[in-house]
């Protein structure tokens, strides 16, 4: 067998198998990139099979229609390979308009390739299956050059400034592909373009496995997580502000309760994630009041039993709203049980002791402190000493004694009574 046989068949096959195994084994590769790589492997192997047919048919002395068929398929597949590589380059482009525009040359090239069945404008084969380029025979190579230049342009346009290494990799790949195309088109070499395609795919895949790429992806994911957390915080505070605005005397109440809750959880030695979660729970602990009529919330006189029952429904209303937020499945706990008493005399469920979730027991203490230290429609803020006495009185009955002691200690350290002015 000739060296060409091994070059044409074995090298690309080994490259494809190598690429498939490494993509399969590396689960940290971005899923969208992984899918395009798998498609690249499939199309590459299909083009390889087709090329072998094109290489072998002349020795079989078959009708020239077979050569036209395999040549047509080859012309169609090569731009598709480069188009798939471009999809990897612009992987962070969400819209479909650009992708559709980039498909247009491939579609036109397909029509051009199919013309070989009807005219000699593109290419033809004589009775000896010898290839002859027609007047428009360069069109397919122009399409290839278009895609190669597109890789360079899009790598510059859509890669961030920090992606210099990837831009360099793409320039090298483009050079390899241009060289392969040149060798096939100008010098008549039947091997180098196939090898350059396989080499380029392997080279680019190696970039995706590099520490540079992994660091960039980690940085992007962190940035996205921070943006999402900021957005979540803004939405949550806007909701809490809507609730607080229903009562002029409780403006800022939800944020203060969240801050007190976070401080208490931190002093209890809770985990960083717990502290973060309880802050959000504190902000939303009164969200159920959005379903309570303003006339009841802002009533200056004593509430009737019926009105008080309506007020007492806000924990249930709030928990039902927050249960729908599946990304934080325990978010509703603070809203539902922050009015439960340690001795079981609270509402809405009458649970007691440690059956009350820790988050709700913490928020209950923070809520009680803010209620006493804030101005209300029926009284001015209580004196700090009186708040301390009240917390001592209800520890163990209304409030968890351990958590109440944390708040009492915070009061003792707040000599100038500044904590309430947050």
Describe the structure.
By secondary structure, this protein is mainly α. The protein folds into two domains: 3-209, Rhopdopsin 7-helix transmembrane proteins; 218-421, Orthogonal Bundle (Hypothetical protein af1432), CATH 1.10.3210. Helix content is 67%, strand content 1%. It contains 17 helices and two strands. A two-stranded antiparallel ribbon has the order 1-2. A hairpin with a 5-residue loop joins strand 1 (123-125) and strand 2. Helix 3 packs parallel to helix 5, helix 5 packs antiparallel against helix 6 (164-185) and helix 16 packs antiparallel against helix 17. The longest helix is centred in the middle third of the chain and has 34 residues, at 211-244. Residues 1-7 have low confidence and may be disordered.
Task: Indicate the topology.
Blueprint: H1 3-25, H2 31-60, H3 64-89, H4 97-114, E1 123-125, E2 131-133, H5 139-158, H6 164-185, H7 192-208, H8 211-244, H9 253-267, H10 272-283, H11 294-297, H12 305-311, H13 314-322, H14 332-337, H15 358-373, H16 384-394, H17 401-413
Antiparallel strand pairs: 1-2
